[in-house]
Amino acid sequence: MSQDNIYRHTIFQNSLMTALLDGIYDGEMTVGELLGKGNFGLGTFDALDGEMVIVDGICYQLRHDGTATLADLQAGSPYAVCTNFVPRIRRRAPKNITRADLSGFIDEMTPSENYMYAVRITGRFSRVTTRTVVKQQQPYRPMTEATDDDAEQVFDNVSGVIAGFRTPIYEKGISVPGCHVHFIDDDRTVGGHVLDFTLEEGKIELCPGTDLELRLPLTREFSAANLAPEDIDAQLHKTEVKR
Ligand SMILES: [Zn+2]
């Protein structure tokens, strides 16, 4: 028997979260190639030079000062997740909902926690708190140290889109388990990796994913990386959640 509301749909991923944690900050895939794999997604750039968000087929680079610019199609990415977003599940969000409450609301929207979901939240936010990685210099430090330099930004009364993925716990290490989302405003001028937000009003759209296309880098650094750290929970918490 097939599951309601779930249709076969591929999510593409370049490299592994544990490779980033291990300090593999240079990739071998360009933004141009990545856009060939989907019109929606997130990730980071070579040397951790900012957060990436892809919305409506356009890739933006979100730097540590909170500014957003169009990404160069030739720019390299050491880690990214993207898909062609099909909004199969949609709901109006309850007014003035916080990130913590919205997480539970999204849980109720999903037919099963065992699939992947691309998540798009569009609307007016009374507040969005983001942080963004700072460009690193070689020799690269592990990500738990690199993110010590992160700058937090707060955006008040802003319209925009939060884009990302809700990933099953069993993908821990491959990806970031749970919700990993990036923000960009409607004017496409500011954004970052989302730590917290309050959504005044807006809509939530989900695109369920059933297939994962994983591309592993052919670089020497990736070949030699430690991709199964014993303290992965602590590392993910420090680098992605931060509070
Ligand atoms: Zn992020």
From TrEMBL:
Stored InterPro entries: Acetolactate_a_deCO2ase
EC code(s) of this entry: 4.1.1.5
MF annotations from Gene Ontology: acetolactate decarboxylase activity
Catalytic activity: (2S)-2-acetolactate + H(+) = (R)-acetoin + CO2
Pathway entry: Polyol metabolism; (R,R)-butane-2,3-diol biosynthesis; (R,R)-butane-2,3-diol from pyruvate: step 2/3
Keywords assigned: Acetoin biosynthesis, Decarboxylase, Lyase
A Pfam family this chain is assigned to: AAL_decarboxy
UniProt record similarity statement: Belongs to the alpha-acetolactate decarboxylase family.
Name of this chain's protein: Alpha-acetolactate decarboxylase
Organism of derivation: Corynebacterium zhongnanshanii
Lineage: Bacteria, Bacillati, Actinomycetota, Actinomycetes, Mycobacteriales
